[in-house]
Design goal:
The protein is an alpha/beta fold. Helix content is 40%, strand content 16%. The two termini are 25 Å apart.
């Protein structure tokens, strides 16, 4: 973390009313006339953190961060209504147009990589490049790996805590069981289930357990939006058609794409990044040998900084 760019504050913040329900928080940092880059956070539902500003040289980049619907400083918190992948894609266009940006570089990790691909495949003419970390293709097999069988066999001790809120009879299909808990009229049931869901993700995010990652996922406010929104998306197949992101990858084959992936990513296994690289053979894939999923893994952080520095020089 100490090798990121120094901490900075936004020079401008926005609350953008994207429909009658949702208001999106967005901020601009760095250089007002710099190279535009938009940071897409994970989850969905995780929100941006202040250190996310620090992956870009503030003397050269115009850095845009925003909290997606229902999380972070956007409102209403943990709201599921009018919250789909395509709502988020539309929000990005509203932000781009309101800020007067013609093209921007997109930097997205985990769910942020999913959203980056969905946006780029819809608005390829607005994308100058893609930097993707911990690629999540949101296929049924990818969701099944983390929420039914796969990661459960690598972390059986953590899995037991994750499934504890779910009745034994319902554990053969975890997602709908959790959805029932996370949309319960009882806020205490929601909060308890959200904490178990979010801590499962936090515990498995790093190759070596990282207290700061666990603290983020263990924060009750963040956990509620992470769990509710993720579960809402995943029970709805992330509002994507089967294999849509790979199927439509040909639409972005001309866009410079850089993929950074941890070899031991247990949330989004490396096969997903590999499949995307095969669909985009001109992309550059950097597999970090001693890293898991988190952007805070040392090797992943340094690889991403190298890419952002190289791109702005071009």
């Amino acid at each position: 973390m100490n090798k990121l760019y120094p901490a900075i504050e936004p020079y401008k913040t926005h609350k953008i009313e994207v429909d009658s329900l949702h208001k999106i928080y967005a901020e601009e940092c760095g250089r007002a006339d710099g190279e535009p880059v938009v940071f897409l956070h994970g989850g969905p539902g995780a929100g941006c953190e202040v250190y996310h500003r620090r992956f870009f040289d503030p003397s050269k980049y115009r850095i845009i961060l925003f909290d997606q619907r229902g999380c972070g400083r956007s409102a209403p918190h943990a709201e599921l209504k009018n919250n789909t992948t395509w709502d988020l894609v539309a929000d990005m266009e509203v932000i781009r147009q309101q800020l007067g940006i013609d093209k921007w570089l997109i930097f997205g990790g985990s769910w942020g990589s999913t959203l980056a691909l969905a946006y780029a495949e819809t608005h390829a003419e607005r994308v100058s490049g893609l930097i993707l970390r911990g690629v999540f293709l949101a296929r049924q097999q990818d969701i099944h790996w983390f929420y039914q069988q796969g990661a459960s066999r690598v972390f059986p001790q953590y899995w037991q805590d994750f499934i504890q809120p779910v009745d034994a009879a319902d554990r053969g299909d975890i997602l709908p069981a959790y959805y029932k808990l996370l949309t319960s009229d009882d806020k205490n049931i929601q909060a308890s289930a959200a904490m178990a869901w979010s801590i499962w993700e936090g515990r498995t995010a790093s190759l070596i357990p990282n207290p700061s990652v666990l603290n983020h996922f263990g924060d009750p406010y963040a956990a509620l939006s992470i769990a509710r929104i993720e579960c809402h998306y995943f029970v709805n197949n992330s509002f994507l058609q089967p294999d849509q992101l790979l199927r439509d990858a040909h639409k972005i084959k001309h866009i410079p794409t850089y993929i950074v992936q941890g070899q031991y990513d247990m949330i989004c296994p490396v096969e997903q990044a590999w499949a995307l690289h095969q669909a985009l053979p001109e992309s550059k894939l950097d597999i970090i040998a001693d890293a898991g999923h988190s952007v805070m893994e040392t090797g992943i952080t340094q690889a991403l900084l190298k890419v952002t520095d190289e791109l702005v020089k071009k």
